[in-house]
Amino acid sequence: MHRVVFVLFLAACAGDAPKSEPTDSSGVTSTSSVTSPTGDAVGRCDYVNAFSQSDECKEYLGSGWTVDAATTDCTAPSPGSEPGAFLEGVTCDRESILGECIVGEGTPEHTVLVFPGEYGDSCDGLELGCTFAGGTFVPSPICEGATGGGGGGSTVFQQFEQICVPPIEGEPAGAGPDGEVCTWQAISGATEEGRYFADYADCSAVLTQRPYWGASASADTAPDDPRLSDPTWVAEYEWVTDQVEASACICCHSTTEAPDGEASGWYIEAGPIWTDTFDDDGMAMMAGWVDSSVFGAFEAEDNNGFSRERAGSPTTDEDRMIAFFEGELARRGLTREDFVDTPPFGGPLYDQLEYVPDACADGLGVAADGTITWAGGDARYVYVLEADANPPGVPPNLDLPEGTVWRLDVDWTADPVASGLTYGDTLPDTWQRWPEDGSAPELMAGETYYLYVLADIYLPLTRCLFTVE
């Protein structure tokens, strides 16, 4: 369920993201009836989504599922969640549901996720999360009338912006022009060491860049914990706290900055030792034992000295940060070997970077006259890549892969663009992100290219290979 929970974590904070037609993994539009087929299930898994704290249900329908395999899948806890309860030979209840997500229909891994509920305020988020899972969302009557937000919705990904402002009163001059403090208003950004991120950047922009769900963890730390009497440990703990407070992590992981004061999982105000709010997987990520590189990172020289090539949080000293969290993991009796089978953090973000495209079908691609055709809905990012290029990931370091031939971006305040635009052309409120200068390179007849179109960051619509006529 690790993938499922992360998918719905993404959906949870999608909120009013622009809606699109349900798509399969290649971006081709799919249609389904309001009531999905259930067939004969091996069984079902009842679990609580770790981020939304909502009851959910998963049916195992494909021929590849055995009772043992389904039981293992159901009872293997994902980060921050409890094991699910498997019921053999039983389908999910559908007395009052928001909808279903059909995943892998017709394959041995066919499953259906069922979302109980009576109110339609989360319908768009569920559809978005289902798309991440490579599934088709089938709304119930409650969700059939739900509508998404427009082009200027606050949950559209706001591209990173570097903000330079004077230091707040009482703080020293900054390293920027005229003594200003320059900070990337970005989820992977950090302000200058010793300062507080939210004093120099806007968390409301950051919250559009990484899904958020309020689900604060608890720390069962004794008030007389011996760590608190160890001056060496306390000094390192305070340094780690200062490092985190200088980064955009506090936008989600501080009760002061998170929406409605509800942090997402671990949070820095928890006492007496806030790092105890990490679950084991999260702490392993902080120590670099579990890969989180798909979340993206700045170069240290462009981020006030903060990097995260190995550690899970931006820091000016990765070795020191890693050593602290390795010590906390050792305190829990855990070693690196305990996490060798833990998948990289990122769920669908990781899957996107591993995606292998097929040939375009049904007229998708770039025609001889330059018309670009895609399926799945309107787009904010349109790429034409070399055929063997890596798929684009998240900014700032993964969204312009080597082999990008042309990229068009839509301003986050504007409406997305419809299929049918012309290769190399720009429209109002759009700009050519690549090449940075000059016109789009000519596409060579007989050559194969990779069309990659996204509804927004994280949300691919069409990903396929086309050959120029």
Q: What report would you give on this structure?
A:
The structure is a single chain. The protein starts with a helix and ends with a strand. The N terminus is likely disordered. Helix 1 crosses helix 3 and helix 7 packs antiparallel against helix 8. Strands 3-1-2-5-4-6 form a 6-stranded antiparallel sheet. The longest helix is centred in the middle third of the chain and has 15 residues. The protein is built from 9 helices and 18 strands. A hairpin with a 7-residue loop joins strand 4 and strand 5. It folds into 3 domains: 143 residues, no CATH class; 179 residues, no CATH class; 112 residues, no CATH class. The radius of gyration is 23 Å and the shape is globular. With 469 residues, it is of the alpha+beta class.
Q: What spatial form do the alpha-carbon principal axes imply?
A: globular
- The number of helical elements comes to 9
Question: How many β-strand stretches?
Answer: 18
Strand content bin: 15-25%
Number of domains: 3
What about the largest sheet?
6 strands, antiparallel
Q: Could you give the order of the helices and strands?
A: HEEHEEEHEHEEHEHEHHHEEEEEEEE
In short:
This protein has 469 residues and is an alpha+beta fold. It has helices at residues 2-12, 67-75, 123-132, 141-144, 203-206, 231-245, 280-286, 318-331, 348-353, and strands at residues 43-48, 55-60, 85-88, 97-103, 111-116, 136-139, 161-165, 181-185, 215-216, 264-265, 358-359, 365-366, 372-373, 381-386, 404-410, 430-434, 448-456, 459-467. The two termini are 44 Å apart.
What's the layout of helices and strands?
Blueprint: H1 2-12, E1 43-48, E2 55-60, H2 67-75, E3 85-88, E4 97-103, E5 111-116, H3 123-132, E6 136-139, H4 141-144, E7 161-165, E8 181-185, H5 203-206, E9 215-216, H6 231-245, E10 264-265, H7 280-286, H8 318-331, H9 348-353, E11 358-359, E12 365-366, E13 372-373, E14 381-386, E15 404-410, E16 430-434, E17 448-456, E18 459-467
Parallel strand pairs: 9-10, 11-18
Antiparallel strand pairs: 1-2, 1-3, 2-5, 4-5, 4-6, 7-8, 12-13, 14-15, 14-17, 15-16, 17-18
Helix pairs in contact: 1-3, 7-8
